[in-house]
Design brief:
Blueprint (H helix, E strand, L loop, with lengths): L5 E7 L6 H7 L7 E6 L6 H7 L3 E4 L6 H14 L4 E4 L11 H9 L5 E5 L6 H4 L4 H18 L11 E4 H6 L11 H11 L4 E5 L13 H23 L16 H6 L1
Parallel strand pairs: 1-2, 1-4, 2-3, 5-7
Antiparallel strand pairs: 4-6, 5-6
Helix pairs in contact: 6-9, 8-9
């Protein structure tokens, strides 16, 4: 791949106060296009995005974090992206590592690149991560590594890069419309045999940064554990799940002739 087309996608909800600063921090020399999907914001997120060099799509109502990502990835694939980078527009993650994420895919280190807040291990706490989230992240990531046989430093970052090949293989449209979408992508990537790469990222926690409530975090944690069980049940042949079935099934030759 001599020149990969890189598209940054930003799933947005009420990001008006942080969008401009995030946009200006993106290393434009490495990115061909930026897409923002506004998931029914009640502020001026879409209006501000349209004043910038950003393709803007607006959901008519709030559909959920996972649903937002589905729109992001489908549009990026439609526009011919070879590499898709998901960056939250809330300013929490540092856009300056985007070249490192791109290179990890181009160098064959992995088709799924994780912007890890735990490289080095306690850097997330230094960046201001609440301690209860730190403990929950460590527990869930450890459990997921045990289930998948991986050694990832973090499974719950919202900063990710995907190759086109992965997005065309993993059936992400079958995933949840809510926050567990991210976890399902992790397990699907492992199930379909794609490799992971990790790049350290610094983070900032502040009032304008997006965050889910304690109750939503609890539901997310339980959903993560349930996704891990579904993964194991599917692998063991106990209960098959559409999350881990191929996105495209070959049509029977006789059916092709009849068609």
């Amino acid at each position: 791949m001599s020149k990969a087309k890189v598209i940054v996608v930003m799933p947005a909800y009420n990001a008006a106060e942080t969008l401009v600063d995030t946009y200006r921090s993106i290393p434009s020399d490495f990115v061909d296009q930026i897409i923002l999907v506004d998931d029914g914001s009640v502020d001026n997120t879409a209006l501000i995005a349209r004043t910038l060099d950003i393709e803007t799509i607006v959901h008519p109502h709030n559909a959920g974090y996972g649903a937002n990502q589905k729109t992001c990835y489908m549009e990026a694939l439609r526009l011919g992206a070879d590499i898709v980078i998901m960056l939250h527009p809330d300013g929490q993650y540092d856009p300056k590592i985007i070249p490192d994420m791109i290179n990890a895919i181009l160098d064959g280190k992995g088709d799924f690149v994780i912007g890890s807040r735990f490289m080095p291990p306690k850097s997330a706490l230094i960046g201001g991560m609440p301690r209860y989230k730190y403990i929950a992240n460590r527990f869930l990531t450890g459990t997921e590594n045990l289930i998948m046989g991986t050694q990832l430093s973090e499974c719950h970052t919202g900063y990710r890069a995907y190759s086109r090949r992965l997005l065309e293989t993993v059936p992400f449209l079958r995933n949840s419309n809510n926050f567990v979408f991210d976890t399902q992508m992790i397990f699907q990537t492992n199930h379909f045999g794609f490799g992971f790469a990790e790049v350290p990222v610094s983070t900032k926690y502040f009032d304008e940064a997006s965050s889910i409530s304690f109750s939503a975090s609890t539901i997310y944690g339980l959903s993560t554990l349930w996704t891990g069980m579904r993964y194991l049940f599917h692998r063991w042949g106990v209960v098959k799940s559409s999350l881990f079935e191929p996105a495209r099934k070959k049509q029977h030759p006789r059916r092709l002739e009849e068609a």
